[in-house]
Design brief:
- By secondary structure, the chain is α/β, with parallel strands linked by helices.
- The protein has 2 domains: 152 residues, 3-Layer(aba) Sandwich (Rossmann fold); 90 residues, Orthogonal Bundle (Arc Repressor Mutant, subunit A), CATH 1.10.10.10.
- It is built from 8 helices and 12 strands.
- The strands form 3 sheets. A 5-stranded parallel β-sheet has the order 2-1-3-4-5, with helices on both faces. Strands 6-7-8-9 form a 4-stranded antiparallel β-sheet, covered by helices on one side.
- β4, α4 and β5 form a beta-alpha-beta unit.
- α6 crosses α8.
- The termini are far apart.
- 34% of the residues are buried.
- The N terminus is likely disordered.
- It binds calcium ion.
Length: 259
């Protein structure tokens, strides 16, 4: 490929003409917004040269610092403190991406991990999320969709802890600044997006939160083609909180019960 030296941050000014890459003749190109935090560290682990090189180009054109690996083995060492988000392919030549995900999650609990893969079976989605991924995008994917998710993950990563009153509803307490949550005094172990989703539901406890709003606020997208990721997160929360805590309003959204 257009060899990017491993280990070097590639955030150099784009080569002449590179910016024209942007969303190539796609009609929604003008909707792309520039990243507000820049440069932000993204580690892309992807062995497909065509996908990797075009993603690196597009992400760089948005102002992100991107490091790219074609194998999973070195991912742990590469995901140092400068990396806020890992975009991770599952089908890698040397190791399975799910294992890489698990190891990254253990080593860096605060890291955002977005799995990008051709595997689209529900079990694969669940395996990826169980291994600690925050998000999951199936190939072929839409660039605008990927960039929206990247923005959302990096924005959350950039949120500095602040003095905030804990949110309370039912038996759940949320401390957003510390990113901790408890139910009946027991601390909940939540993945990053589960935490965000629970915080939103608790803030609106007793009221319906629409799927559209959740997708927009938690995943930063209006795209509703598939909300498997959302469904999986709700399932996980129910599992952790008790099945009666979150009510599904079919076709509308979810409500955290206050009883
Ligand atoms: Ca692959």
């Amino acid at each position: 490929m257009v060899g990017r030296p491993y280990g070097a941050w590639v955030n150099a000014p784009p080569a002449p003409g590179q910016r024209q890459v942007k969303p190539r003749q796609k009609p929604h190109a003008q909707r792309y917004r520039r990243a507000s935090v820049s440069p932000s560290g993204i580690l892309l682990v992807e062995d497909d040269e065509a996908i990797a090189s075009s993603l690196v180009r597009v992400l760089e054109s948005q102002g992100y610092g991107v490091r790219r690996l074609a194998r999973g083995g070195p991912a742990l060492a590469a995901a140092d403190g400068d990396v806020s988000l890992v975009i991770l392919d599952l089908g890698l030549p040397d190791t399975d991406g799910v294992d890489v995900c698990r190891r990254l999650r253990t080593a860096r609990p605060e890291l955002a991990i977005l799995i990008l893969t051709a595997r689209d079976q529900e079990l694969d989605v669940v395996a990826g999320l169980d291994a600690g991924a925050d998000d999951y995008l199936v190939k072929p994917f839409r660039l605008a969709e990927l960039l929206a998710r990247v923005r959302a993950h990096l924005r959350r990563a950039a949120v500095a802890p602040g003095a905030e009153e804990p949110l309370r509803a039912c038996a759940v307490t949320i401390d957003r600044a510390a990113r901790r949550a408890w139910r009946n005094g027991d601390e909940l172990v939540l993945r990053p997006r589960e935490f965000e989703l629970l915080a939103l539901l608790v803030a609106e406890a007793g009221r319906v939160v629409t799927r559209e709003r959740i997708m927009r606020e938690i995943w930063d997208t209006d795209w509703l083609g598939s909300t498997k990721t959302l469904d999986t997160h709700v399932l996980a929360l129910r599992h952790k909180l008790g099945p009666e805590t979150i009510t599904t309003l079919r076709g509308v959204g979810y409500r955290l019960e206050t009883r």
